[in-house]
Amino acid sequence: MIVISPSELRGNLKKYLDLADKERIIIQRGKSEMFELRKQERISEDDYFDNPKNIEAIEEGLADIKAGRFTTLDPDKTLWENIL
C-alpha cells in the first residue's frame, strides 16, 4: 500500500495509474480524508451485473445455448404441459 498526497498524484499521475494495477494507492487529503485509486475492468452502476457470480451464470447460460442445451416451449401449451 502506498499513501500519497493529492499534489504527488498530480505530479506523477501516469506513474500512479500504472501502479494502481498492482498496488493499493491511497490519496490522503488533509488529516481526515482518504481516497483509494484502483483499476477497474469496466464501470457499471448495476449491482446485479457487478457480481462476478451473476456474470459467470450468464456466460454458462450462453454456452449452453450455443451447445444446443435448451428447451423450446410450445406457446399453445401451458407451462405445466411444456414441463411435463
From TrEMBL:
Superkingdom per UniProt: Bacteria
Family matches, as InterPro entries: YefM-like_sf (IPR036165)
SUPFAM superfamilies: YefM-like
UniProt record similarity statement: Belongs to the phD/YefM antitoxin family.
Protein name: Type II toxin-antitoxin system Phd/YefM family antitoxin
Species assigned in the record: Pedobacter cryophilus
Organism lineage string: Bacteria, Pseudomonadati, Bacteroidota, Sphingobacteriia, Sphingobacteriales
